[in-house]
Task: inverse folding
């Protein structure tokens, strides 16, 4: 099978091309650096099947980011049969910079000139023949989005793959070429593959190259003694980068001819959108408002705020919001948001599904409660219906809400707004000792902590990297979303009626806490270095249905897969622990859940978590047990609660969990947000950190979640008893945090 | 006159004379097209004043004032 590598700049449409070629659903975003690792798929439309490898987007083949190293090593070491270099025709100059480096490798290259339709749509002229003539490789105009030119491209790739192509440099007219030639001969003597590429990199003083071949460095040093450029002196790194760009500007300035020369100075649509979204004053409030409405549409029980309006007539609503009381009876019933509405349908559907199983397990007794009771009395009925299905039901019933949340995030990514969020927030974050580079891992962390922690590799500075990994749990990952959805429903059932605000504060509060923690983490380190923030801001474009759908499909697949494997397995274990125990002095199926194995374990855990508040009441051990099973996968928290609380047929799960106060709900949420992530994320952190740093990370996660949760409970309880008392303590705590924050900042400035 | 990229006002345009700094940071700037001879204009500043957004080689790049201060510009004034 022929192996085709796709290489190109971030955001040049490479992954869109990959998706359309392979029919696969790799995730695409209008956000530099979406592909962290390479993905593969098969192109089947030609006689010969072709394996397509989508490499991470890169600006250069210098080894300074993990993406660049992955791409560079793949092309050099894995010997793809042909490289398709995807070039964004609307941004030729910078895209061709990578091309000039790719061409130096001994590998067949075909250039896919993407977005060529957009260039023409602007009324500009595009002449791809110039490129073909000068670069000496096939150039095919395509539109990955509309699927134009794909068969021509793949045919060209197939044809190119059969011939050998010798690496070629565009630096040939420079004096420096003598040196490059000498070194490449030396490389040939050492039987190194791709001598030209390595020779140029060595002259560029490339970190990997100088480490791999220190024996040849004398040639560069000797040359430097006699050679000096007028502007660059012996700074070959600058000289070569400059030569590449000069060559591109000189030879290819006529590839795209703008219809109107002043066009570049006119405001584009993207500029006009940006004027609003990154506005000096409104940029931040707009960001917060967008985030709030996303959660409102997904989680609110009261879409049009009708309940809140009713509340405001009867009671001073604000105080009730903080105390979590007084939301009973007098408020109007609101219209649910799309997320809640979909979830209720999903719940109905899965409920029918379970009833069906109960009916079968009961030996076809009367459909409904009778069958349910009969099914529970047999061990297999209990295992299937009360163990596995009840758990999966509660996990799966949140799929619509989670998909909706990811839909909004995918739209933000695909339109290019995500890159602007980093732009808006960088300054604020840097004050706290984190750079813009930490954004990408953190934003990824909202999806899943595992790639989030992996993405911290882009942070060169070890101290900052460790900090970012520790703060990862503050950013609520997708698997935690079912917990919030359940707790939001519990909050409603308990009469604390602001489900959307509850979830919103979890997310925003997490960010705020990350900032506070980051400030304090700086106290313990003398390192003031923050890594640079040099990022492309892509043009806004409408979200592409294909890309957004691909993203959602990927998430859904992952979710269902996880439910079918790890969650089902752990639910069986939990069911076993819950069903068996010691009663009347012997090991058996227990009548009273308190005597079950998990009951004993939970009782011990209950006292461990006693100060956190949510473990105090009679059901406390169930919350403790649920939190621990969250180590396997965060969805398990919800699954375990479903199994342990096991509400009657009349009550929903949320209604049967009514033993918590508002502050208890918040405290439980805070604990589960901040505590250890799932096993997969813990293992990833271990892989990224040294042993000592990893142990510190574990201690950090547990300490912060334990203390944070306890603080929320006790301060919250004070509010419930006497709101003014709570307010005083809150203000005192806030003042303490702000003062010590200022002191710390001052101290670090002096240092 | 010569000045640093970070000191330019919004809307001003200049020519890059020299890129200071060292190692990875400098390499990154080169790779993103911030090389001597390139024309740069300042497009915008973030709500909190930093980072800045520049137009270079036909695209939009954002970088901090710290990084921008490494870039020495020739500006007509």
Result:
């Amino acid at each position: 099978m022929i192996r085709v590598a796709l290489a190109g700049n971030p955001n040049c449409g490479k992954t869109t091309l990959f998706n359309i070629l392979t029919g696969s659903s790799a995730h695409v975003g209008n956000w530099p650096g979406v592909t962290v690792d390479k993905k593969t798929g098969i192109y089947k439309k030609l006689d010969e099947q072709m394996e397509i490898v989508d490499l991470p987007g890169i600006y250069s083949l210098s080894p300074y980011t993990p993406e660049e190293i992955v791409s560079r090593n793949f092309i050099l070491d894995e010997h793809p049969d042909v490289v398709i270099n995807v070039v964004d025709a609307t941004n030729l100059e910078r895209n061709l910079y990578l091309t000039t480096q790719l061409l130096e490798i001994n590998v067949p290259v075909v250039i896919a000139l993407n977005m060529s339709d957009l260039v023409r749509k602007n009324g500009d002229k595009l002449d791809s023949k110039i490129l073909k003539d000068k670069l000496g490789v096939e150039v095919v105009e395509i539109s990955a989005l509309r699927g134009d030119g794909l068969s021509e491209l793949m045919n060209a790739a197939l044809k190119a793959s059969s011939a050998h192509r010798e690496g070629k440099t565009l630096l040939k007219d420079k004096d420096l070429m003598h040196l490059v030639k000498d070194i490449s001969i030396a490389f040939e003597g050492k039987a190194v593959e791709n001598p030209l590429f390595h020779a140029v990199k060595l002259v560029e003083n490339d970190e990997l190259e100088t480490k791999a071949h220190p024996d040849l460095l004398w040639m560069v040093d000797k040359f430097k003694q006699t050679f000096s450029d007028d502007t660059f002196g012996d700074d070959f790194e600058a000289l070569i980068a400059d030569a590449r760009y000069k060559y591109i500007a000189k030879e290819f300035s006529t590839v795209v001819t703008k219809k109107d020369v002043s066009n570049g100075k006119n405001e584009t649509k993207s500029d006009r959108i940006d004027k609003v979204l990154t506005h000096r004053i409104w940029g931040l409030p707009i960001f917060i408002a967008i985030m709030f409405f996303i959660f409102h549409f997904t989680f609110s029980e009261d879409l049009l705020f009708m309940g809140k309006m009713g509340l405001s007539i009867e009671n001073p609503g604000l105080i009730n919001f903080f105390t979590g009381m007084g939301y009973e009876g007098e408020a109007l019933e609101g219209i649910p948001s799309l997320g809640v509405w979909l979830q209720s349908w999903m719940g109905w559907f899965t409920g029918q599904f379970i009833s069906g199983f109960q009916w079968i397990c009961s030996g076809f007794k009367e459909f409904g409660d009778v069958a349910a009771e009969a099914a529970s009395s047999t061990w297999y009925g209990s295992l299937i219906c009360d163990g596995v299905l009840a758990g999966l039901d509660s996990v799966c019933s949140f799929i619509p809400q989670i998909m909706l949340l990811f839909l909004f995030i995918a739209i933000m990514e695909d339109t290019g707004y995500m890159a602007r969020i980093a732009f808006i927030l960088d300054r604020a974050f840097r004050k706290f000792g984190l750079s813009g580079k930490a954004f990408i891992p953190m934003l990824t962390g909202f999806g899943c902590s595992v790639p989030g922690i992996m993405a911290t590799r882009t942070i060169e500075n070890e101290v900052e990297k460790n900090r970012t990994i520790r703060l990862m749990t503050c950013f609520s990952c997708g698997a935690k979303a079912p917990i919030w959805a359940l707790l939001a429903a519990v909050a409603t059932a308990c009469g604390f009626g602001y489900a959307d605000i509850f979830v919103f504060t979890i997310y925003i509060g997490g960010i705020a806490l990350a900032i506070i923690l980051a400030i304090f983490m700086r106290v313990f380190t003398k390192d003031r270095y923050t890594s640079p923030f040099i990022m492309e801001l892509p043009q806004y474009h409408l979200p592409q249905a294909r890309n957004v759908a691909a993203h959602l499909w990927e998430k859904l697949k992952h979710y269902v897969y996880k439910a079918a494997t790890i969650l089902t397995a752990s639910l069986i274990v939990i069911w076993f622990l819950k069903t068996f125990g010691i009663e009347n002095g012997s090991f058996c199926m227990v009548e009273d859940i308190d005597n079950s194995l998990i009951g004993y374990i939970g009782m011990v855990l209950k006292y461990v978590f006693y100060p956190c508040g949510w473990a105090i009441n009679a059901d406390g051990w169930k919350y403790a047990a649920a939190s621990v099973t969250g180590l396997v996968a965060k969805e398990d928290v919800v699954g375990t609660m479903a199994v342990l609380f096991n509400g009657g047929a009349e009550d929903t799960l949320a209604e049967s969990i009514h033993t918590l106060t508002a502050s208890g709900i918040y405290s439980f949420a805070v604990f589960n947000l901040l505590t250890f992530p799932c096993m997969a994320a813990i293992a990833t952190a271990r892989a990224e950190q040294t042993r000592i740093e990893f142990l510190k990370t574990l201690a950090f996660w547990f300490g912060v979640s334990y203390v944070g949760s306890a603080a929320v409970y006790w301060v919250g309880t004070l509010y419930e008893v006497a709101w003014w008392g709570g307010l005083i303590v809150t203000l005192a705590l806030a003042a303490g945090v702000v003062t010590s924050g200022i002191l710390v900042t001052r101290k670090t400035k002096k240092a | 006159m010569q000045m640093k990229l970070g000191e330019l006002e919004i809307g001003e345009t200049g020519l890059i004379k020299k890129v200071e700094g060292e190692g990875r940071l400098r390499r990154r700037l080169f790779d993103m097209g911030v090389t001597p001879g390139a024309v740069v204009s300042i497009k915008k500043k973030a709500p909190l004043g930093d980072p800045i957004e520049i137009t270079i080689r036909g695209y939009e790049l954002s970088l901090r004032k710290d990084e921008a201060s490494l870039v020495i510009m020739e500006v007509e004034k």
In short: Chain A has a mean pLDDT of 81. The first helix of chain A runs from residue 14 to 22. The first strand of chain A starts at residue 2 and ends at 8. The interface with chain B takes residues 59-60, 62, 64, 90-94, 97, 231-232, 237-238, 241-242, 245-246, 264, 274, 278-281, 283-284, 423-424, 426-428, 430, 436, 460, 532-539 of chain A (CB under 8 Å).
